[in-house]
Every structure is written in structure tokens, then in C-alpha cells.
Task: structure prediction
Amino acid sequence: MNIIKWKAIQKTAGIIAIVAVIGISMAACDSGSKDSGPSLNGTWEGSGLIINVSGSTGTVRTFVSLGTLWQSAYDQGYIYTGMEIWRNLNNTDTYTWSGQVRLVSYNTSRPGFATGTSWTNATFTLNGSTLSIRGTPSGGSSLNETYTRR
Result:
């Protein structure tokens, strides 16, 4: 075989090898940044609130209609636009998150009069564009809310 042809074949084989190594390296370094499943990010409406979620936090965007207790909390400044209402959202399964929900506190002798807010652990379950939130606040009552993605 002609020496010039042999060197050309070696050069071509070398280029192909380099391209192959680069391709394999890029595949190995893939961070998996493709769609990793559903997210809670976005705007949610329910329970008289519109909430914006970004990452692990949900903040009140606006109040739509408040019941007596939440109106009392609003009037006293316990709740307000821009406040954190959901926090520590952590995806635990494809359609499930753990986190905490801010609730309005009250004295049982005056159930419509807010005395502050507190956090309770909750499970967030996504089903299509519906988000169900379940938890058991202190005092034994149950948290059972539904929000719809806007």
C-alpha cells in the first residue's frame, strides 16, 4: 500500500476516533435536564386565594374571596399579598410533594376571629391540573383543600 494512502487512512481514522470520543463524552455528561416530570411551578387558584409557586415556595398573589376567619386574619395583617403560604415543597414521587401550609389560627371560643398563623405539614398531590392538599394540623382537624392550575 502506498505510504501516502496509509497516512491518509490513519489520519481519517484518528479524526473518526476523536469525534467518537467527543460524542460519548457529551452523552456521559448529560445532566438529565430534559423534562423531569410534572412541576408545581405556576399559578394556582383555590380556597379563596391565587398562589404563585416557584421552586419550593408558594406566595399569595391575590385574595379572591375569603371566609370569615381568613377575612379576620387579613384585616389584622396576619395574611397579606406576597406572603409565603406554602413552603419546603419537595417532590417525593412523580405526582406527590411534601411541604408545609400556612394556616390561620383561632381560639375555639371565637372560631371566626383570627389569632395568628401557623405552619402544618401537608401532602400535595397533582392530578392533571388539580392539586389536592391534605394534612392534619395540631388540634386534630383535617386539612383538605383543592387548587386548580390557572
In short: The chain is about 25% helix and 45% strand. The helical segments are 3-28, 68-75. Residues 17-34 have pLDDT under 50 and may be disordered. Strands lie at 42-46, 49-54, 57-63, 84-93, 96-107, 110-127, 130-135, 143-149.
